[in-house]
Amino acid sequence: MAQRTVLLVLFDGVQSLDVTGPLEVFTGAENQAPGTYRIRTASLDGGPVRTSSGLTLVPDTSLADAPAPHTLLVPGGKGTRGPAPRLTAWLRENGPRAERLVSVCTGAILLAEAGLLDGCRATTHWAYCAKLARDHPAVQVDPDPIYVRDGHVSTSAGVTAGIDLALALVEEDLGRDTALTIARHLVVFLRRPGNQAQFSAQLAAQTARREPLRDVQQWITEHPAEDLGIEALAARAGLSPRHFARAFRAETGTTPGRYVDRVRLEHARRLLEDTAGGVEEISRASGYGTPEAMRRAFLKALGTAPAEYRRRFHPAPTR
């Protein structure tokens, strides 16, 4: 197998984890299979850069002297949110030469400004998806996935999603066993599904200000199989159903029913990922009652049935 050069672009204001997350993944792969990756970091002039958290990173070389990359990785951070004409010009000229073009978080903004995402489906940090779509209408922005792969272009959501994408690339290059070993070492999942929402039900909704509503949110999370109808939840909060529904939406930004749906989906998803329980058992434990009800919920939210979802995490062994 030919050695692949992975080039990580550095600049002032870069998000340090956007760099170090994928760097640890590719370095772990090189440690597992020596000679597969040649990993280099480079800034415009070869000088140190200061990350958004104040950490100083010293690159291996300048972009002008960097080796031609197989995989060109552009991280995100505060440094992507202002004009960067020199870096954009370098990407516009050199990006098309890479066999794989990868961005982490708002690194997608730099790729888009260089014209490298035109006509591509892409994602970025959820807080910047609207900006990416507004400023670059030729880019097909999908705000939900952890990462998107469209031909030779791969873009990931915020920060830690760069680890997910790097693991997917290593799995493509070196196989599942190598990628799984790295994931275990980093104590992360090998593969979150590509159409998983960028944040959990608890993070998607705001935390209520009033204690009774916060308690109800916590109760829902801890007891997805209980009666979570509006009357039962309102009684737990000590409010009338109408007052509870109005207050819950005002303080969390979502309705009680939608919040319950998200929590139950997330609970079922985790059980499918992490346990060997049957679909019927998981449907009851997650509050769906029947496998068919859970199947409909998965198809609506994720576009896949529970059995297929589980196969992504527990593929049948090859003979």
Automatic annotation (TrEMBL):
Domain HTH araC/xylS-type: residue ranges: 214-312
A Pfam family annotated for this UniProt entry: HTH_18
Keywords: Transcription, Transcription regulation
Gene3D superfamilies: 3.40.50.880, Homeodomain-like (1.10.10.60)
Record-annotated membrane-spanning stretches: none
InterPro entries assigned to the protein according to its UniProt record, in alphabetical order: Class_I_gatase-like, DJ-1/PfpI, Homeodomain-like_sf, HTH_AraC, INH-QAR
Gene Ontology molecular function terms on file: DNA-binding transcription factor activity; sequence-specific DNA binding
Lineage top rank: taxon: Bacteria
Signal peptide annotation: none
PANTHER family in the record: ARAC-FAMILY TRANSCRIPTIONAL REGULATOR, HTH-TYPE TRANSCRIPTIONAL REGULATOR RV1931C
Protein name: GlxA family transcriptional regulator
